[in-house]
Amino acid sequence: xxxxxxxxxxxxxxxxxxxxxxxxxxxxxxxxxxxxxxxxxxxxxxxxxxxxxxxxxxxxxxxxxxxxxxxxxxxxxxxxxxxxxxxxxxxxxxxxxxxxxxxxxxxxxxxxxxxxxxxxxxxxxxxxxxxxxxxxxxxxxxxxxxxxxxxxxxxxxxxxxxxxxxxxxxxxxxxxxxxxxxxxxxxxxxxxxxxxxxxxxxxxxxxxxxxxxxxxxxxxxxxxxxxxxxxxxxxxxxxxxxxxxxxxxxxxxxxxxxxxxxxxxxxxxxxxxxxxxxxxxxxxxxxxxxxxxxxxxxxxxxxxxxxxxxxxxxxxxxxxxxxxxxxxxxxxxxxxxxxxxxxxxxxxxxxxxxxxxxxxxxxxxxxxxxxxxxxxxxxxxxxxxxxxxxxxxxxxxxxxxxxxxxxxxxxxxxxxxxxxxxxxxxxxxxxxxxxxxxxxxxxxxx
Amino acid sequence: xxxxxxxxxxxxxxxxxxxxxxxxxxxxxxxxxxxxxxxxxxxxxxxxxxxxxxxxxxxxxxxxxxxxxxxxxxxxxxxxxxxxxxxxxxxxxxxxxxxxxxxxxxxxxxxxxxxxxxxxxxxxxxxxxxxxxxxxxxxxxxxxxxxxxxxxxxxxxxxxxxxxxxxxxxxxxxxxxxxxxxxxxxxxxxxxxxxxxxxxxxxxxxxxxxxxxxxxxxxxxxxxxxxxxxxxxxxxxxxxxxxxxxxxxxxxxxxxxxxxxxx
Lengths: 446, 263
What we know:
The complex is a heterodimer. Chain A is mostly helical. Chain A is about 60% helix and about 0% strand. Chain A is built from 17 helices and no strands. The termini of chain A are far apart. The longest helix of chain B is centred in the first third of the chain and has 17 residues, at about 75-90. In chain B, the strands form two sheets. Chain B has a four-stranded parallel beta sheet. A four-stranded parallel beta sheet of chain B has the order 6-5-7-8, sandwiched between helices. Chain B is globular and about 50 Å long. Chain B folds into two domains: about 10-130, Rossmann fold, CATH 3.40.50; about 135-260, Rossmann fold, CATH 3.40.50. Chain B has helices at about 10-15, 25-30, 35-50, 65-70, 75-90, 100-110, 125-130, 165-170, 210-220, 230-240, 255-260, and strands at about 20-25, 55, 95-100, 120, 145-150, 175-180, 225, 250. The interface between A and B is large, with 69 and 77 residues.
């Protein structure tokens, strides 16, 4: 019985980690579904192609070549090395040694690719750390990245370094054990696997006894797999959710021209009724009061739609949006990245309240408590942030929904804008010129 | 070329039972702003000169609602939109050309779901069409060899993906086209969009138009070419702020074509 202990222990850890992950995913789903309904299910072909190109193919990442290429290395490494995790899991459950070893040359090729990728990931991650902490790159120095967001980014980098070092240590000791002909490790068919990187680590283990090597190998194996399971469960609390959510986020992202802002149907009904000379002004609106929304625009996360909330969880806080933002570049408070981070923070707060069965009240809300009016009014709606996002996030749509709330619910536009709008209302131009003079230019000297 | 412009209205066309090839949507800036009116007139000169059969709505035209919508006033936007759509549909308009990218974007993208479906083109796209059809000839002229940098209006470029029509027209003028640090899909806003034109900017280190003008000045152009009346105002102010107005002109692409031909 005792000999099965490691296997039983592994299965318990694995099941525990998966269950905790499922619990987090269900909170995530519940929170995203607090958002309003929006139909993003059209043009499935086009959406799928965009997802393959932008999320899987990382086409927008390389707009910034250095960060983009390093990211692609880490991303490819992450996906490919995870094939090895499958073998690690099977070995863990069945108590086998390198179960896919029978693949022979194919196996050697796979293991050597994993090793080379692990090495490249290690190098990239170190370069990422230097960029983030030592190079004073403006988008990593912003106020909104102080504290947790900065630590979160660094923790992930440390995690990657530790995982890659453990992976290579595991392989090196395994190789050494095979060379020493240790039982369970060595096979009559020769060496299982090919170790182009970890072979250089062998001198470190020279002269170690088989017993000590087994301890090092097992420790590295356990820490590596447990590390991966911890990483999986860390995602929910981190900007690293993007490794899962980038795919649905790009799939559901907007396909129309960026200049096309959505028209509010509820307003259309009201305006049509106002303009219809036959309409009875005292009549009940068709379909009862259901058509009239509780409020126009958004002052809190529940007023946004589920895609905007999904995007808040997807945001990787890379800051490409903010560094392209004309308002931010000229020192205004607005930062599109902060809009997304605030939305996620507030949504998490609401989620916590729901977990604790507390009432969600408006005395703390997205508007004012997280996002100030000054930020919202600084936007030029130029769409640079939307274009810059490598995974299809649209911070501008949140800004617009919140402006709508300010103007339509609170009549709280800046004074000069109110003047322009009353001009439009009175004489159909943002300036106080008479509509009857609209063609005067044609009579002037050419 | 006579000094007076021929600007028929849709009402006069209807009275004669005729339908023009295209409706010219002038826009508020093009109708009232002194600087933008020059752009309007330059475009009309070219339309007259190339015998394009066009008409304007004149006093029946009203703000498209773009600034209201981007300020967050959906109600006012839709009131404007539906009023305009009623007029346009009444005249059975099929094709619209405008020299304002904001009017262009709003009519093209936001009117259809409210019942207004038209083919909408920006004036640079329209001129390109005329060029392709051989109706407009553009060759060299007084800007030949001059250094020109083109400022992409957000609502023509990023918002609607049109980067080449204005550049193609400039190339026809045989100018030396130089690009600013931020151009095309990365083009930097002039600072006027999203109803900013009609309000003071929030507190910051500098104005957006100054920032953009600095990018333009960096490439030492003779002319900053624009395709939007609001960008034009912002860049003109920026150039004045830098005291470069004697060295750098800010002109709409259509003004450059009209001037080159000495219309």
